[in-house]
From TrEMBL:
Keywords assigned by UniProt, alphabetized: Hydrolase, Magnesium, Metal-binding
Similarity field: Belongs to the 5'(3')-deoxyribonucleotidase family.
Annotated GO MF terms: hydrolase activity; metal ion binding
Entry protein name: Os03g0774300 protein
Length: 257
């Protein structure tokens, strides 16, 4: 599904490795043999004979239009003439089986494929006005709470007359009712917003106002993430991907983020 119909991978100048047997493939000490597959006959040829084993000094030829089976990461590095592990971008859809192992053990750059992200981005784009309303309701609720706290402070510590106390108590009751009303509006708006993504779990990357555990794992283990690997076709293979800027809480209000 990655390529146009009728196009075979060998026609693109790539090579394909089948039955690599993860996770053993990721260990250079794995003694699995590497075989070249003849597409027409299906025969397996011992590729170690012409590319050399991972520990030999033999320089392999470029594996253009080749299909291989088995082997280990040492074979792969030799076939690609890789001088540094960071030259490889490994794409996978499993955090622990693909991304964490290849990054921690091998030092490869990693990209996590998250198919659900495509729908998430679409819904986020459509819900900009809802998110603005949620922020407004939350700020209004915080403002009311501040007023309530000031009134309670005055009632507790200031030397007030009975008439002044009665007036403040009346204002206090009104603010409590208003706070409860805003809280319910915010709660219902937030519930409807999350139901658009998933009726039970809400947004994939959020738990309430905080990033979900999955989101933390993505940030920690994946160098890049996207809904599908074909999104890379929109960019040059030489593109350098830079991280976005981090922000402190006070910067959100000052910069209007």
């Amino acid at each position: 599904y990655l390529f146009p119909e009728g196009i075979l991978i060998p026609q693109l100048g790539l090579f394909l490795n089948l039955f690599s047997a993860k996770p053993g493939f990721f260990h250079d000490g794995n003694r699995a043999g590497l075989f070249e597959v003849e597409p027409d006959s299906g025969k397996l040829l011992n590729a170690d004979l012409h590319i050399g084993s991972p520990r030999s000094g033999q320089q392999p030829s470029r594996p253009i239009h080749k299909i291989y089976q088995g082997g280990n990461v040492g074979h792969l590095h030799r076939l690609l003439s890789v001088a540094s592990s960071s030259q490889i971008l490994y794409v996978g859809d499993h955090i622990y089986g693909d991304i964490l192992r290849s990054k921690k053990v091998l030092g490869w750059r990693t990209m996590l494929v998250i198919p659900e992200l495509e729908q998430e981005v679409k819904l986020l784009s459509e819900s900009k006005s809802t998110r603005k309303e949620l922020r407004h309701l939350r700020m209004e609720r915080d403002s009311i709470e501040d007023k309530i706290h000031r009134l309670e402070w005055s009632l507790k510590f200031e030397n007030l007359t009975e008439d002044e106390k009665e007036k403040l108590f009346s204002e206090h009751d009104i603010l409590l009712q208003k706070k409860e009303h805003v809280r319910r509006l915010h709660q219902e708006a937030q519930r409807q917003h999350h139901h658009k993504f998933h009726k039970v779990w809400g947004q994939l990357m959020k738990t309430g106002y905080q990033n979900s555990r999955f989101a933390h794992q993505v940030e920690r283990f994946a160098c890049l993430y996207s809904s599908q690997v074909t999104n890379f076709a929109l960019y040059s293979p030489n593109k350098y991907y830079r991280p976005s800027e981090d922000y402190m809480p006070h910067e959100f209000d000052v910069l209007g983020l």
